[in-house]
Each structure stands twice: as C-alpha cells, then as structure tokens.
Design a protein that fits this description.
Number of strands: 8
Low-confidence stretches: 1-23
Radius of gyration: 28 Å
Number of helices: 7
Strand content: 25-35%
Shape: elongated
Mean pLDDT: 77
Distance between the termini: 26 Å
C-alpha cells in the first residue's frame, strides 16, 4: 500500500500544480490517479482511499493531524489486541437489553406466575486490591452494582435488593420495601444487610438464588461488562475522531 502511494505521488509532487495549494493539489492528484490505467475501476482502490485520507489531513492543522493519527493508531490497536465480540442477548432465564452508548444494561425475567424480575446493572464502578495466588503482587478486583426489582403487581409492594457483583460472587448490601402507589417523602429504608440476623440473611440469599440471581450470574455480568467496556471505548474513540475530522 505504501509503495503504491509513493509510486504515484512522486511525479506529481514535482509538478508546479501540486505545489500551488493543498486543496487544488488534492483534486489534481485524485484526477490524475484516476487517469492511470491501473486505477480505472468501478470502485476506488485502497490506494485511492488512502490518498483521500492523506488529502483530508492536508486541510487540517499539524496539531489536528497528529491527534487524528494517534486516534487512528489507538483504534487499530484496540481492534487487533482485544476486539469486542457480539454481546449475548440471553443468559439462562434472563433476556439482556443493552443500549449502545449507555453505562448500564437491563436484565428481565419471570418467576412462576405473575412475578416480574428486572435487574439494572452498571458498568464497572469500583475496585479493590487483592493478593495474587503467588503472593508476590496485588491485582485489582472489579466491582459492579446491581439493583434487583422483584414485582408481583396487583398493588403489592416491590422487593428491591442493592447488590455488589464480584467476578466470582454476589453480595446483598441492602433490602428495600417499596410501594409504587404510595411514595413517602422520607421512607425508612431498613438496616444494612449485614446487620440482619444470619438466618434471615441466608433466607434472603436463597430467595434470589431461586430466581437465578447468584454467583453464576455475577460471573456472566463481569464477562459481559469487560466486552462492553471495550466496545464503548472503541465507539468513543471513533466519535472523537469523526468530530475532529469535520
């Protein structure tokens, strides 16, 4: 590709028309290239596409051109090193709703008759240091927050669980009792989960596990968010590059 670009560019650089101005020289360059027999095709070749990119950079300031080159390199690196894959749309009994560009996803499921389950899941929102198995160094364990809503409808109160998701475990932090038709200004939100009687803690954990909200789901969410984090980063880089190119 580089040899193709230099081979056609060298004689054109020597002409006075190319040196007159960047905008007119770009048009002259493309017109002459299309006159070459090897470039007369129904679709522009990769060589011509690369020259178009080069011509676009000529209209930018050196500072902007440098940013565009850095962004292009970073996008290519991310795509080659750890390319995002197509995200899952289901996990066990849950359907996964993901909206590109947002920092959270929604999982939905039903349990028995008339019980709706909705889980709002953030992207990574924290971390803690952990000791590696060899004991020589530390690693960061990423954290995800979950808000689990269990609704039975018919005017019944909803159960909401605020949970912490770790790569290999799920922990309940708070339990809320909500009435959608009766919103108090300053409702009592209950104690911290760890302050409850151990037997009650265990019973509430089993309530979630019976609905598929368990350590296995937590592991799935971490894998999902690792992929979403890469996807959103590459999308953000592309938007930034497009904004500077305009």
């Amino acid at each position: 590709m580089a040899r193709c670009f230099r081979a056609f560019l060298k004689p054109l650089l020597a002409s006075s028309s190319f040196l007159s101005s960047s905008s007119s020289s770009c048009k002259t360059l493309l017109n002459r290239l299309y006159q070459q027999p090897s470039l007369r095709t129904d679709k522009p070749t990769n060589c011509v596409a690369q020259i178009r990119s080069y011509c676009s950079e000529l209209t930018k300031s050196p500072f902007e051109s440098n940013i565009l080159r850095i962004l292009g390199t970073e996008i290519q690196y991310q795509s080659d090193y750890a390319p995002p894959h197509q995200p899952a749309t289901k996990f066990n009994s849950f359907t996964v709703e993901d909206r590109p560009g947002e920092q959270w996803i929604t999982l939905r499921s039903k349990f028995q008759e008339g019980e709706d389950i909705k889980i709002e899941v953030t992207m990574f929102d924290g971390c803690i240091p952990t000791q590696k198995a060899n004991g020589d160094s530390t690693a960061l364990q990423l954290h995800i927050s979950l808000l689990v809503d269990i609704s039975k409808g018919d005017g019944c109160g909803d159960l909401e669980f605020l949970c912490s998701s770790w790569p290999d475990s799920l922990e309940i932090q708070k339990v809320y009792l909500l009435r959608r038709d009766l919103m108090l200004a300053n409702p009592y939100m209950g104690p911290n989960f760890r302050d409850l009687d151990p037997k009650l803690q265990n019973a509430l954990c089993k309530l979630l596990e019976a609905r598929g909200i368990n350590d296995e789901l937590s592991g799935f969410l971490h894998e999902y968010m690792l992929n979403k984090d890469r996807t959103e980063f590459v999308r953000w880089l592309g938007k930034l590059k497009s904004s500077i190119e305009k």
